[in-house]
Each structure stands twice: as C-alpha cells, then as structure tokens.
Amino acid sequence: MLPSATPARSTTSPPPDDPPFLATGRALLAQVTQGVRLAQTGRFDQTVVLLDDSRRRLRGHPVSELDPVLPGVLTDLGLAQTMCGRFGPAADHLNEAVSLADARRLPLLGLVARHNLGCLDLYRGDTAAALTTFHELTHQMPDDRQDPLRVDLAEALLAVGLVEEAGRVLAEAPWRADEDDTARVLVEAKLRLLEGDRSGALHLTRRVRAGLGPGSLWHRLAGRLEGVAEAATRSPAPARRARDLLELRVPAVAQPFAREPADGTDSADGAGGVTGTGGASGVAGGGDGYRNAWDVAGRRGRLTDARRALDRLAERGAPAPGPWLGSADRDPHVIRAGLESSLLAGDPATALEWAEMGHTWADGLAPAPDTAAAPRMADPTGRYRLALGRGAGPEAHHHARRWESAHWRAPRTEGGGARQHRLPVLEALMERLEGRAFVHYTVAGSEAVALVAVAGRVHARGLGPLVRIRRALGRFVHERTVPVPHARSATRTDPFRLPSTPAPPARSSPADLVSSTLLGPVLPLTGDRPLVVTAAPYLGDLPWGQLPALRGRPLRLVSTARSWAERPATRPGRDRVLLVCGPEPRMARLEVAALAGVHPGARVLVRAGQARVLDALAHCDLAHLAGHGSIGDRTPMLDRFDLRDGPLLACDLAALNTAPALVVLSSCWGGHGFGGAPGRSGGFVGALLARGTRTVVASPVPVDDERTGVAMRAFHRALADGAEVSEAVADHLGHLGFCCYGT
Predict the structure, then answer these.
(1) Of the listed ranges 137-151, 344-358, 608-622, the one predicted with least confidence
(2) How far apart are CA 277 and CA 727, in angstroms?
(3) What distance in Å separates the CA atoms of residue 367 and residue 221, rounded to the nearest whole number?
(4) What is the pLDDT of residues 88-112, one digit of tens each?
C-alpha cells in the first residue's frame, strides 16, 4: 500500500559524517520503515503517529536533504491519514510531496504521490476525480508499481457500481508474487460478493482474517465482508441485501465507532453510515466497525438517496420506479433490489421497468462510443494506429492503454447527478412489438431470469443458477472461436423440442445446453413469433443464430426496450448502396463483385483507404464491408477492419456526422463488444448505432470465408426482393454466427 518510503539513491551530497547525525538519521528512517510495515498490515492509526513524528523531526535534519526522504515520508503519511479519515492534513502533505518530488526531479515518487491524491479523492467521495487520476496514471506507472494502482482503480469502480469493469481491472493487473496482496484480496473478495459468489468471498475474507490481528483495518474490513456474505446466504429481503452491498462498495476508513447496544444502530453522531447486526457494520457478532468513508467526508448526497430508496422499497414492497428515486436511479444495487422485490411480489410488469433501468443506470459514468470523437482522443488514436503499423506488439498494447486512459477522461454526455426520469416503457413497447415477442434477460439474486413481454402480458421465467449458465456459455463461445463446420451449422432442430427438466442432458453439446437453458422456458410463451432480445452482460457476445432453437427464427438484439419502443415508424431507404472490400481475403473481393450484380448502380470501393471509406459511409443508405476483422487491444472501440492504408478502427466511426441506415460487416468479430456492460455497447456495432445507424448485421465470432460469401449473396438477394432484415439474417446468415443488431 505504501511503496514510497524506502529511500532511493540520492543525487545530492550526503549529510556530514557526524555520528550523532548519522545515528539519529538511521533511527528516523527505521521509524519510517516501521510505520510503513504497520500500514501494510492495516494499522493506519499507528502509522500516522509514527510518520507524523518522523516528519516533524526530519525538518531541518541533514538526512532530509537526501532527495527522496522527505517527499517519501509525506507521501506515505498522506495516504495513512486518508485511510484514517483525516482528509485535510492528508491533502496538505500529499500536495507538498508532489511539489518536492517535482522540484527534486523524482518522477516515480511524484507518480506515487499523485496516486495517493487519487485515493484521497476516492475516500472523501469524489469518485469521478479519483477515476480520472487513476486512469491518467495507468499508462505512466511502471509495471512494478501497477498492482496498488489497479487495486485502487478497482475500488473506485466498485464504489460507483461498475462491477464488470472492476473485475477486468483486477484480472489484467500484472500481479507480483513477492508483494503483500492483502488489499487486493479484500477488493477481490468484495468483487466476488457483488457478483454473487458468496463462497469465494468467504474463502478470501477468512484468509485475510487468519493472517492479521483484530487491530488491523484489513482484519475488520474482512469481517464486514464475511458478515454480509453469511447474511446473504440466509436470503434476506432484497432491500436489506442491497443496503449491505451498497455499504460494502463504499470504502471504509480506520475510524471505529460503537453501535448502541439497545437498538443495534450507529452511534449518536450519525456518522457511521452502516447499520444492522451481522451485516455491513463490522465483524459478525461484533458490536463495532469502521466508518463509511463518504460519511466521514460529508459526501452523503447520492449515497443518502440510495439509502432512502432502499428504505422505501423495504416499506412499500415493490413500487414502480419513478422520480422518487432521485439520484438512486444511477445505483445498480437499488435497481436490482427493485427488480427482485417486484418478482417476489409477483409483478413481472414492474420488474421489466426496473430491468430496463438496469441497462441505463451507467449512462454518463463510463465512456460511451460517441466520446471517442472528442478532440483529446485524436492524438492517442493516431499513436495507436502508428504502433499497429509497426506490428501489433507491446508498443501497440502500450498505446492502447493510453487510448483507454484518455477515453475514460473524455467529456461525458451526462453528468453524475440525478437525471430527468423517463416515463414507463412497457405500454409503448407492447404497441410497437407488432406480432413479435420481447425477451429481457436479467439476474435476480444468484439466478438468471427471463422477462417475456408477449400478447399484452409480461411473464417471468427462471433459467437456473447463474454460475451454471456462465459455465455453459463459456464452453459454447469457446467452441465458436473458430469457423463452425458446415455439417454442424446446417443441422436443424425443432425449436419446441425442450428438455423435460430444467437441467439439460449430461451429453448435450454446448450449443444444445445453452439453447435449452436460455430458450427452453421462453419459447412456450412466445410461440413462433419473431424475437426482440435485450441481453444481460453475462451473456456477452453470443452468436444467437447458432443456437439450435433459434435456427431460422428472426431475432433482433437491442440495447434497451426503449430503443425498440421509440424506433422510427418509417422504413429507411436503401437506394444508395456502398460496397467496400479490404485487400484480403480473396473471397472478399469475389463477394463484393457478386453483390455489385445484386445492387445495380452501387458504389464499389475495392482499394480505398480510411478517409475515402469514412466519407462514403456518410453518403449511403446501405453499406456492406467485406474483409479481415480483428479484436482490438483492451477495448472493443479499438477493433479493426483492414483497409489498403491500414486498419479502420471502431472509434473512427464516432466522427461520422451521418451514418447508413443499414450496415453489413462481412468479417470476423464485427459484432464484438455489443454485449458489454450495461448501457455501453461498443465496437463497430455500438459506434454505428450511436451515430444513427438503425440496423447492423455482423458476427461476434470468426466466420468462414467461402461459406460467408455464398450466404451474403443470398442475403442481399432477399433484401432486394423486399425481405425484412432480421428475416433475411435468420434464413441465410444466422447459422454462420451473424446477428441482427438494432431496430
């Protein structure tokens, strides 16, 4: 946690060779080292005492003239004070540390001090500033200093509810086996608990508690996590469970408080911010705990709204979402509690309204595709493109990290405060289905759930444990990372031949297993209607048409129910056709040549570069791009489509003023990134839909060159004959992995 205190080699003259000075200097440095060791075990209050005494005694001492000594002590002292909730002195010491590090030309120590200033922002409630600081440092911090930065970045993401992003940050960190990992283990345990993995969380928390004494903040925080995990196994009410998880997301500081034994609530000053026995208030069975950092800082606005909303849910059962939520409409656990409460009350229609919010709550918290067009993104995009030209190696990965860092710091389309509440979507959705069925896949507790709107009613169907479904999806998607053999893709299965029990047969193929799990409970409700599907993030980028039960069935993937309900009533024109092929493979050129015969008068670009293709995309109604596609580094917004003068990046499309109504991406991975975190579809599909494209046809998995060319000719002939896009995809492309995205 506090890596800066070990003095590095100094470039200044050493202090005089005077035994008293040397002796006191060594004693002071030994005291600093002792304070750092105490901090590494979570005893931050003792660290503050030792480092603050060292700071005072170092002023004017010759050893302080060693370049890293004083800024190092101030850096570590500031973080320890932050962890104790002493934010004013922490800010003073950290800012002084930054100034000294810059003046003494200690760039690494300056980065560590700035990192600790980000921690200060996080713990005093300014999560947006903390996220900006951490993302700015991700490409500057050396690899051997990345671990603590990644831990704090994950903590900040969890604080605002971006659980999937936090998991990715922890998974990508270059963890070093020789460093203390207590802080990482605690954040990972918190992540596991927020994801519903209670047994994994319990294992990690008990590991921490076994290695530390009760005087450690880490020991007590592990106790908080363990108490919530054990309470969750007793299936408390959704609002209570959400309140516990909400408190765990917010960092705690080393300021203990005692609960009043009479009623189990916080102490009289009200600053504790955690309540309930056996919950987030401390170790299981204990009577005290550590204060919520945001309460200590006085930043209670959004957190208070979330608590108030959960209290209302607990009191009134399952109210519909509305303006009463305030800024709590941006909290995923409040929304999850509303969804689960509605399901328990037997009200799937209200549950669907809550589920819709589950796909919009993160708007403005994380970068959307259109922010890739911000002026500050031009330089990192150009540098990444140049690095790709020199080979997709470590240099390209470094610039991809810089690009992602800049993307997180780009201006958001919405602020972090309360938004104007949108009207309910269900009535408009039912009116616009027009003989289709709408399916929203979501999660309640540890179970996957499908909400099905059909024929004027909403139904809820359980799909089984989320862990089992994730495992089945992993096997199925892994199998689809290479082109599917023709014999397998051509087989047809009766979509209504369902398993008699929720668990599929043990010898089922991955496709059969996923198909029966996700669609077995749904299809008896929908009949043979075409489907409109909103998928939960756990489903990822699924090639839906390759599921046996969907073979030949029209299906559209939409990001939200509202995007379907509010789609324009008029059918877009397809008069201006653009056909583009990359330099490879050879079948792409043959495919485009054949399609030119299907669309007489189409504009054909065979050896065009990026600028020409982007200009042409802004002046057509239907665009077909055939060529090599590949996944980008770190983010789907860096996915690539190869052109003559280099790759067309998904982020390049964010600069389009207008976009075609229909885009067909005849390449591998064209649909990658759509099934991301809530409200933030990325990749080529997300970028095109954000610029106004109504429908994108693309594959989220690799495709076979020869069979794709043949199927694309049949698909375009069907479009020319007037077929609806999703029907043409189902008839000719779905079995190859292509999906129909958008309205």
Answers:
(1) 137-151
(2) 56
(3) 31
(4) 999 999 999 999 999 999 999 999 9
Structure token pair of residue 730: 């189902």
**Alpha helix (H) ranges present in 235-300?**
238-249, 293-297
Beta-bridge partner residues of 452: 439, 459
How far apart CA 416 and CA 327 sit, in angstroms, is 8
Of the pLDDT bands very low, low, confident and very high (cuts 50, 70, 90), residue 488 is very low
Q: What is the mean pLDDT of the chain?
A: 86
Query: At a CB cut-off of 8 Å and minimum separation 6, what does 641 contact?
Result: 582, 625, 627, 628, 629, 647, 648, 665, 667, 670, 684
Determine phi and psi for 511, rounding to 5 degrees.
-65, -45
| Span 712-727, average pLDDT | 97
Buried/exposed code over 456-474 (b: 16+ C-beta within 10 A; e: otherwise): eebbbbebbebebbeebbe
Query: pLDDT for 599-613, tens place per residue?
Result: 999 999 998 999 999
Q: What is the mean pLDDT of residues 399-421?
A: 73
- Give residues with Cβ within 8 angstroms of 148, minimum separation 6: 1, 3, 115, 183
Q: Given CA atoms 432, 514, 696, 596 in this order, what sign does their dihedral have?
A: negative
Identify the pLDDT of residue 298.
78
- pLDDT (0 to 100) of residue 275: 33
Beta carbons within 8 Å of 291's beta carbon, 6+ residues apart: 85, 252, 253, 255, 256, 257, 271, 272, 273, 274
Helical H segments across 19-63, by residue range:
19-40, 44-58
* Distance in angstroms (rounded) separating the CA atoms of residues 671 and 544: 12
- For residue 185, the Cα-to-chain-centroid distance in whole angstroms is 19
The DSSP letter of residue 548 is G
Strand partners, 546: none
Mean pLDDT over 51-80 rounds to 93
Report the number of secondary-structure helices (H) and strands (E) in the chain. Answer: 29, 16
**How far, in Å, CA of 158 to CA of 165, rounded?**
8
Does an H or E element contain 578, and which?
A: strand 577-581
Q: How far apart are CA 269 and CA 431, in angstroms?
A: 53
Q: What pLDDT is attached to residue 555?
A: 98
Which residues are within 8 A (CB) of 14 and not within 5 positions of it... i.e. 6 or more apart?
A: 66
* CB atoms near residue 657 (< 10 Å): 7
Cβ partners under 8 Å of residue 494, min gap 6: none
